[in-house]
Amino acid sequence: MKCEKCEEKAIITNPPRCKKHFNEYFLETLQETIDEFHLFTKEDKLVVAVSGGKDSLALLHSLKKLGYDPEGIFIDEGIKNYREKSIEDLNLFIQQNSLKLKKISFEEENNFTLDEAMTTKQFHACMICGTLRRYLLNKYTKEFDVLATGHNMDDEAQTVLINLARANTELLLRGGPKSEPKKSFTQKVKPFYYLTEKQILTYTLINNIRVDYGECPYAYTSYRAKVRDLLNKEENEHPGTKKNILKNYLLLKKRIHTEKSIVKVQRCVLCGEASKEKICKACQIKKQILSKKNS
Fold first, then answer.
1. Separation of alpha carbons 48 and 37, rounded Å
2. What one-character DSSP code corresponds to residue 180?
3. What are the structural domains of the chain?
4. Alpha carbon separation from 280 to 47, 98, 112, 195, 266 (Å, rounded)
5. How much is the pTM?
């Protein structure tokens, strides 16, 4: 198949582009998303949540290409025989691109790794990891205007379906390419909202970004993995399914925005961080895990 823009051979089919024109498409789509949703400007102090995986490193790389000046923040969950490789790739990338990076670990902050938490059999791995990562990212990014994550079109379409299937109305309404600005929370944005996982993978390959494409060893146990496989099947049979889900989700969210309940933010009595409850979810999880671990 030929590139839609020239006579060169296409390296990807959606859209059909050669290496040069795919890079242009990727950066144009990224900039258009930033502009359409007013995610941030070049004057904003921007930090990217990085893991050393393809999405976060591609985001750092492409933002630098567009003239932004992002810093990185890395959370080490403590997953043996998995996280070590991504830390190695991340350190190399940071060194090659002269970027600033802040490193935080579950073990130092919580007195347990994710692996240790799983031995207590108190919660699902994704619940522990997601809750504590969000907590730490917010705690250590207060000096920044915006926190960008590498969530892509696949991730976001999956999230819409998961929240619908589980009737998570509040979480459903909080989705989208950016969070609402709140005094106690760093605003989160998703610049890859309209770029697919395959496109991001292609970007890392043709730009020689060294990453480990392995999946988290806990991922296969998640409900998300099942939704991912179902959605990929639909996308193969009906191209455009994922983008249609997101486009229509945003229209639905806009229509019911005025009816959304306002959640009062307070301070956790244990750690002092922002919370919807007297004791934040992160402290609840840590307390239960440490209690089981030390018993």
1. 17
2. P
3. 12-262 (3.40.50.620)
4. 24, 36, 18, 33, 9
5. 0.87
